[in-house]
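To illustrate this point, what follows is a protein record of this kind.

___
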Amino acid sequence: MTFKYKSEVKGKGGISARVVAKSVSAYSGQEIVTWEYDAPKSILSEINTHSILVKNAQSSRAVPIKRVIEQIRTNPVTPVHWGSNKPGMVAGEEIDSVVKYPDEKYDYINLSKEEAWLQTARDVAELQECWEEAGYHKQIVNRIGEAFTFVRGVITGTEIDNFFHLRYHKDADPYMYELAKCMWEAYEQAEAEVLYEGEWHTPYVEHSRLRDKSPLSYGSYEYNEHDNVSYWIPISLEQALKNSSAACGQVSYRKLDTSKETVERVWNNLMGGETIHASVTCHQASPMKEPYDYYSNTSSLHWQDGITHVDRDGNFWSAQFQHWIMHRKTIENESCKKFHLRK
């Protein structure tokens, strides 16, 4: 099965963004959107600064060392702006100075900025191989090359304006600016799907609706070569939520695989043990039928399951989502409430 994105925008330097799902509440008009992105690993900390957005990303602890080394050798992260050094966080204008690079035969050789950068990447990859041959784990070896490594991640949110206000800005890190630009353009190109009570925003799981307001079906289109026709293969809502969660989790280490066997294995690994890793269940959401606290009823006994709080303006929230119930907040024991040190 090949998943069809709602939109895709490719930017400079291998940076790109794709809208996986974009939905709008039939009751409040509040949108929720999920992106998948490829960006330099070095800006992951800046992405994670935006705590109102929920995120999963490729982990250096999960990707095989050889795959990382191959990426650094064949397609290393390269600056999209060769700015000059100056005080402060914002670089100066672009320059084209040669780099004096260490050389075994000569003390140094003069290389262009592009040549010097690629040679640095090759040298780092060679050093990583030395560490790998010595038997060190990928959580050590892969991090040596993170200046040259891409990361793939998933971002979901209802509150996206401040992210773009800060990151789609001329003073942002050039990598971050380029990613935000791709994300915004992909968002603008994608059409939002209207969802009703009991229906779910399920990234990586497709939807089908025969006509307006008819029941929503979850599943995928599978192409039959013999008939030259694509058939709709429906699945249950429970399976759709599992498939979506597992797919968001697979971003950290593998290509998308929503076969039932893989989904069950990933789901059980994340959600079936003593320690639950529930972040993958943050990306699915269902619209609140009553998104506002019209009666200023502060008693949570009357709140829809999954609502976590109400703000000063009377908007109901489920964790980071406004007017949408987060899947994670409907799962029992989704987080530890009382830690006990293990012996």
